[in-house]
Specification:
elongated, 5-stranded antiparallel beta sheet, alpha+beta
């Protein structure tokens, strides 16, 4: 158990035995001093991040007990909150998983050895006759003990199909294969393969490779080491399989689990949307942007996530974006779309030339844009942008983006519902304290406009002798206020229809601001069968509503 700053305040006897130290020596941050040196920095940083954000912490790491024993442990800590919702501390648990890890390592080693032996047992002639038709790269290599590296002597044509690099490059350039391995995996992969081959041990390894077109491909490589009469390694034979889809599915499942927790958490929507963008951004683009739709139809960014700060700073400096008709039409079906970031589109989204130039300067090549929808109404977008090189998206990635968009929409809907409830509670409190009808009308107009998203509001009294009388209005143009200041019950307008039937009704206007006709039930027709009366509401800016 810890305090709100993450300092340990209590451990039980099991933790004392695991660390090999009494409880008083594990208070504060002392527990971290026995984390294995190779795991300590990452473990402390992840714990600090969880404490700072007040979120669930889960971490697997190695522990060096007081007697020098190295144990594999898995720790988790859940934030505890007070009545005001503030984090008061963390309640955690640590489990010793050493036996499980050793059993898993043994299982993997045995499986790798069996797989490699099955590859080597096939006759060389039969193998070469079959390899070209296999959906895997089959290869042979000599072992260079001086360089502690493999020199390929045969690589099947599947290598070129999978990664785009000519097969002869594998054979002719000793430095080629190390360069193909993804930079983040290179050191570990080469060291592991070198150590196992030098020891004459069959092995398997999974790593990322970079294709000639920049695609990142996950490869699983099974290796059989050939040893000479003296027991020293002389060559290796291998089978390399594309496991990108499997890895992608595993990662997508992890992302959905992590973002699923965000949907159910409390807190502001913009903070949770930023967390979602930070989680999913690296998998679907170079940066992620969440923008919500303003009442005037423009998109305002509320969260930007990227590994550096360049995109975040550049996007933060932009004005809210217009939604060009072409983009609106593409988003209308409610599904993710891949949008080329052309200069024409950047200018169409910008309010002026300076803003357009800033958008072009960001250097976006294309973007995966996911509409955020509530009911059948667009309320924002979740965009994954790519810089420099345009990205092609697999169907599974589009499905993931659609689900992330649905979850982001749920966050927005829940946040707006909470805001609406707070507004309504305030309205109720205001009405209860109102001194009279006039003050109550003024408070209704002031408060309900935000709740309903209305540009103009008015409150009227229905009196048998005086008809329909305006009590208070807000947002209406002066001539409209004058028109609705006093009406008769039998007037062919929506307000009179409401007074006559005690039921709600409304009317719509065209995009250009002109009326399209009444939509209220039972609207009376003028003599002669002409068109029904049209409702007319003009806001001060000249638009109709």
């Amino acid at each position: 158990m810890t305090d709100r700053d993450g300092a340990t305040t209590f451990v039980n006897e099991q933790v004392e035995r695991m660390w090999g130290r009494p409880a008083e020596q594990l208070a504060g941050t002392a527990w971290a001093s026995q984390v294995h040196p190779a795991d300590r920095v990452a473990t402390e940083l992840s714990w600090a991040d969880a404490v700072r954000a007040g979120t669930l912490w889960e971490r697997a790491y190695r522990l060096v007990a007081a007697d020098g024993t190295v144990r594999h442990v898995r720790s988790s800590a859940r934030p505890m909150t007070g009545a005001d919702g503030e984090v008061t501390g963390f309640l955690g648990a640590t489990v010793d998983v050493t036996a499980e890890r050793r059993a898993e390592e043994t299982r993997r080693d045995v499986a790798a050895e069996h797989a490699a032996r099955r590859v080597s047992e096939a006759a060389a002639a039969r193998l070469r006759a079959m390899v070209q038709g296999l959906a895997a790269i089959v290869w042979e290599a000599e072992w260079d003990a001086g360089r502690r590296a493999l020199r390929f002597t045969f690589v099947s044509d599947r290598a070129e199909e999978l990664l785009g690099h000519p097969a002869d490059r594998w054979r002719d350039d000793p430095a080629f294969w190390p360069a193909v391995v993804h930079p983040d995996d290179r050191e570990q992969t080469l060291a592991y393969t070198g150590d196992r081959t030098a020891a004459g041990l069959d092995h398997d390894v999974t790593y990322r490779a970079v294709a000639i077109d920049g695609r990142v491909v996950w490869l699983h490589q099974v290796v059989h080491v050939v040893v000479g009469p003296d027991g020293e390694p002389v060559a290796a034979q291998g089978l390399t399989v594309d496991v990108t889809e499997q890895k992608r599915a595993e990662r997508h499942a992890e992302l959905l689990a992590e973002t699923g927790r965000l949907v159910g958490e409390d807190g502001r929507a913009d903070e949770r949307l930023l967390a979602l963008a930070e989680l999913a951004g690296p998998d679907l683009g170079d940066a992620a942007i969440v923008a919500t739709l303003l009442p005037d139809g423009r998109l305002r960014q509320v969260a930007v996530a990227d590994e550096g700060e360049r995109v975040r700073a550049a996007v933060a400096a932009l004005a809210p974006s217009r939604v060009p008709p072409s983009l609106a039409a593409a988003l209308a079906p409610g599904q993710p779309v891949v949008v080329p970031a052309t200069a024409e589109l950047m200018h169409a989204m910008a309010p002026d030339e300076q803003d357009a130039a800033a958008r072009v300067a960001i250097g976006i090549s294309n973007a995966l844009v996911v509409p955020l929808v509530m009911g059948d109404r667009l309320t924002g977008v979740l965009a994954f942008v790519n810089l420099a090189t345009a990205r092609y998206y697999q169907p599974s990635e589009l499905d993931l983006a659609a689900e992330l968009g649905r979850r982001a929409s749920l966050m927005l809907a829940a946040d707006r519902q909470r805001a609406r409830e707070r507004h309504l509670q305030q309205v109720s409190a205001d009405l209860a304290s109102a001194a009279g009808v006039a003050e109550a009308a003024r408070l209704l107009v002031a408060r309900l406009g935000d709740v309903l998203g209305a540009g103009a509001m008015s409150v009227h009294l229905v009196e048998p002798e005086r008809g329909i009388r305006l009590v208070h209005a807000g947002g209406c143009a002066p001539d409209v206020r004058e028109e609705v200041a006093a009406l008769r019950i039998d007037d062919p307008v929506p307000l009179a229809e409401v007074a006559r039937t005690a039921s709600r009704c409304g009317c719509t206007t065209s995009a250009s601001g002109g009326p399209r006709g009444p939509t209220w039930p039972g609207a009376p027709r003028p003599p002669g069968g002409g068109p029904a009366p049209r409702c007319r509401w003009r806001l001060p800016g000249g638009s109709s509503g």
